[in-house]
Amino acid sequence: MFERYKINVTYRTRERQILNALLALVTGLLTLIYPNFLYLIAGGYLVALGLLFILFKIPSTLSAVPIVAGILIFIFPELIPITFAGFLGLFGLILLFAFQFSIIGILTLIIAILIISNPASVAYFIASFMLLYAISNLIKFYQDWQQNDNGSGGQPVSIQ
């Protein structure tokens, strides 16, 4: 009797991808629904993102950036445009160069520039970034899931 097993070594990456996408989706929806509470929503998102980075063992320097930006937003809510645009600029450069996710990286840099040039609409720009990032991550997760599922009918075995 022949049994087929599939070893999935990218389990943590897929888990991180879906958690990032869900966090961004919830944050984008909350920002659209409650734009007056932007400092709480954006600061909470950045701190939660930093904690997720720590949880998934991302380097500490990269994990500290969103946490520091979130704390700055909590302490100084009037700095939301500058702080979030700086975070998006850094995040866009990381996406553009390090992860080879160039389209989202370019769009992230454009949104950061738009936030700097029009700080009155910062809630809508942040919501658009969050929703764009969440949807692109969910699409990539679905594509990876479809590509890894070869129709064998068996459940993949994950080795951690």
Walkthrough of the structure:
The protein is mainly α and 160 residues long. It has one domain. Helix content is 74%, strand content 2%. It is built from six helices and two strands. It has helices at residues 11-33, 38-55, 60-75, 80-98, 102-117, 122-148, and strands at 7-8, 157-158. A two-stranded parallel ribbon has the order 1-2. Helix 1 runs antiparallel to helix 6 and helix 3 (60-75) packs antiparallel against helix 4 (80-98). The protein is globular and about 65 Å long. The two termini are 27 Å apart.
Question: How far apart are the first and last residues' alpha carbons, in Å?
Answer: 27 Å
Share of helical residues? over 70%
Strands ordered across the widest β-sheet: 1-2
Give the count of structural domains.
1
Name the descriptors:
160 residues, 6 helices, 2 strands, disordered C terminus
Quick synopsis:
This protein has six helices and two strands, in the order E-H-H-H-H-H-H-E.
Record the SSE blueprint.
Elements (H helix, E strand, L loop, with lengths): L6 E2 L2 H23 L4 H18 L4 H16 L4 H19 L3 H16 L4 H27 L8 E2 L2
Parallel strand pairs: 1-2
Helix pairs in contact: 1-2, 1-6, 2-3, 3-4, 4-5, 5-6
